[in-house]
Fold this protein.
Amino acid sequence: MGLNVARIREDFPCLCQDGAGRAPVYLDNACMTLKPTQVLDAMMEYYTKHPSCHKRAMHRFGVMTTKKYARARSVVKEYLNAPKDSEVVFTRNTTESINLVANSLDLAEGSIVLISDAEHNSNLLPWVFLCQRSGLLLRTFPVRPDGPFEGLQEYREWLETGKVKLVSTFHTSNVTGVTLPIREMVSLAHHHGAMFFLDAAQGLPHQPIDVRAPDADFVAFSFHKAFGPTGMGALYGKTRRLVELRPFLVGGDTIEDADYGSCTLSPIPERFEAGLQNYAGVIGSAAALEYLANVGIANVERHERELNEFITEELAKLPKVRILGPPDAASRSSILSFIVEGLDSGELSILLDKSANVMTRSGVHCCHAWFHKYDLPPSLRVSLSIYNTLDEAELLVRTLHSIVKHF
Ligand SMILES: Cc1ncc(COP(=O)(O)O)c(C=O)c1O
């Protein structure tokens, strides 16, 4: 059954028409999605009914916040199919989740950290910094800008050296939308004795996720890309991996006891959640996952793929357009990134917004190294969500046709 998009749009106040009777056409969902009233209401309830911290406060506001905080963790655990609540750590975003692990891991000097060459800076720089300060080596396998993913052979060869101790890679690329064969990659990594860190920032909002299959050691994602509040993310980690980490951010709530020379750390996950937390954010994040589960991830996937297929087919008719990543939309999740020869992507994005109310993203999408390596100009990225319609896709295509015709 298809999505009832008209009904879904009613949940998003931001999609209300402006004074001129035009609704915004929001196609920058890979950066962050819009927020439904269900999420806004859950957050508002925290601020209006029990605005207090959790755990430490014994009064009734505190007790209510403690309950809701614990419940939110369970909701995330259920959504991920994680074995235990304590394997879910709340963070500010995917970036913080990756930094948490990169700054807390203890790997032997000379070990290799293996990533793809197309990682978001958030899954590149924490490893670059780690390698610089601790004598580890950073190596990459290729994700080329044209065609399907063909880097598995290089990936396997790196693992066969026996030196790779950690693999960290995206699930779905934020630039091209290509999705990696994660199951196979995780089992290869484990077979060769390496841990696997999955950056699911662009995976979780658009595809089914189950941390038991593929059996990654760590999974990071951001709620703001999945209908949740801004500045909220999570890290899933297997218990035996989390207990091996030495927290790099410590303070209130991370310890059981302390004196002037030492401390006893709190159990996981509290030892990683330092200081007063974003309670409204945590509660809103749980509401966001419940919203997503209610819509149904299979429906999300199908709807976004159909729109992406339509836009891809229409764009292919335009001269001078180069689509990055696999040519078939079905392999690009909710993302379509392209370059129009002779046209600056930033100008194109501004023109789409000014002339048709269509919001897209231009630039190198926090993948500077990859754009340099393959000598690519900045691209224009269209990224879809459940509230986007065929009418919006047609408007985008029509406007692009008329802009490109004039150049
Ligand atoms: C694949 C990928 N990884 C990591 C990030 C960083 O996410 P955040 O800014 O929410 O930390 C992004 C953000 O777009 C992303 O697309």
Q: What stands out?
A: The longest helix spans residues 60-80.
